[in-house]
Amino acid sequence: MESNKKRIYLSSPHMTGNEQKYIDLSFKTNWIAPLGPNVDRFEEDICQYVGVNDALAVSSGTAALHLALRLLDVKAGDKVFCSTLTFIASVNPILYQQAEPVFIDSEFDTWNMSPDALKRAFMDAEKEGNLPKAVIVVHLYGQNAKMDEIVEICNFYQVPIIEDAAESLGSTYKGRKSGTIGKFGVFSFNGNKIITTSGGGMLVSDDKTAIARGRFLAAQARDNKPYYQHSELGYNYRMSNILAGIGIAQLSVIEERVKQKQAIYQRYIRGLSDIKEIVLMPEYKGTRHNRWLTTFYIDSEQPLFTPFELIQELERENIEARQVWKPMHLQPLLNEYRFYSHSEHLNVAETLFERGICLPSGTNMTEDEQSRVIQIIQSFVSRRREQHFIANF
Ligand SMILES: *Cc1c(COP(=O)(O)O)cnc(C)c1O
Asked: Which atom in ligand 1 lies closest to the alpha carbon of residue 193?
């Protein structure tokens, strides 16, 4: 019977209705290519919305990260510092360049890169005479990392920052849009992100020369000749004009989407406030959190339940929830690389992975559907409490 209930997703695409207009336009004008007026306009709209000089629309957020590393001349054997608590896409481009990732732990205020761990990683790298070529800072689930502290450390060592803002479009840090503080910012428009082109990404920077070179690399690095001549390694990374049309319509409602996501988060706060073990991801002072996904962790030495058990319970009711990202330094692919924990005693990313859960946060989820999610969590937790009480009686 349960399986008859309509599935509630973690965060599914939410169309505005205007996307079709731009798609139709590309068909009418026959701009069915990885360039064209929709691509130009989407890039301009992003520049205006986040406040940067230049933007390059590409086929994915991963492609944008890869280009950023190329533009910073990251090569085989170079080191790149990277947040450990993230999706694998933050790291794969480092491996594409045969560079060496060094993983930096999170801290509890933001769940993002720990400035303490970053500082220790830099001190060691300096001692070894091998500073990183770049630092990739991830803004997890829409929350900005502590950029003031991170920028100060990176400026001291003169190492550029790439902001992986794939999850944080629409968030702000002290009045500035997420993704515009480092040398490069990267956004993703994958199907589950706050806005989508079904698949796509954007590289942004104030450095127009760098973006122009990114444009060249993203289009197979063709030399300026009347024939096809190539002197450098390039990629086929440009965004399709059809998909950019979807992006234009999606971006026009980003502010509305952030408000809807924040309202979803507020309803979870109210609905779960009496379960004291649940600690929702905070919003760091001076920032706006886009609340792409509402997440919490179970703050208890003897937890009543594991994230996996709650996720299974929700799955039985046809509701999609997910564990917090498994840290990169724990991945079988990556466990040979170095990792710096927040402190000697605190390994924050591992704790958040073991105890953290992402709740359904789609902007097309109805209030009734969200109430169903809350009610299932409530009854699951009270059953666990009773069992616990009886067991300890
Ligand atoms: C989604 C995501 C990416 C990659 O974006 P794609 O467009 O799927 O390639 C990179 N980093 C993080 C943190 C993400 O969530």
From this structure: 1
Nearest to 55 by CA among 182, 226, 201: 201
The residue to mutate among 90, 197, 322, having the most atoms of ligand 1 within 8 angstroms of its beta carbon, is 90
For ligand 1, atom 5, name the residue with the nearest CA: 61
- Would you state the pLDDT for residue 3? 56
**Domain boundaries defined on the chain:** 19-251, 254-391
The answer to whether the CB of 183 falls within 8 A of the CB of 205 is yes
Cβ–Cβ under 8 Å, residues 178 and 165: yes
pTM exceeds 0.70 for this model: yes
**Going by CATH, does the domain composed of 254-391 fall within 1.10.3720.10?**
no
Residue 5 has pLDDT above 90, yes or no: no
Burial 79-117 (b: 16+ CB within 10 A, else e): bbbbbbbbbebbbebbeebebbbbbbbbbbebbbbbbbb
CATH topology of domain 19-251: Aspartate Aminotransferase; domain 2 (3.40.640)
For the segment 105-139, what is each residue's pLDDT rounded down to a tens digit?
999 999 999 999 999 999 999 999 999 999 999 99
CB-CB neighbours of 332 under 10 Å: 6
CA–centroid distance, residue 259 to ligand 1 (Å): 22
Among 59, 91, 162, 167, name the best residue to mutate to test ligand 1's pocket (greatest count of ligand atoms within 8 A of Cβ). 167
Distance 90 CA to ligand 1 centre (A): 7
For tokens 């591992």, name the residue. Answer: 350
Say which of 193, 261, 285, 326 is annotated catalytic.
193
193 a catalytic residue? yes
What residue's CA is closest to ligand 1, atom 10? 89
47 contacts: CB under 8 Å, gap ≥ 6: 53, 54, 55, 204
Residue 124 host element (H or E): helix 115-127
Query: 188-240: per-residue pLDDT in tens?
Result: 999 999 999 999 999 999 999 999 999 999 999 999 999 999 999 999 999 99
CA of 9 to the centre of ligand 1 (A): 18
Q: What's the mean pLDDT when you consider all of the chain?
A: 95
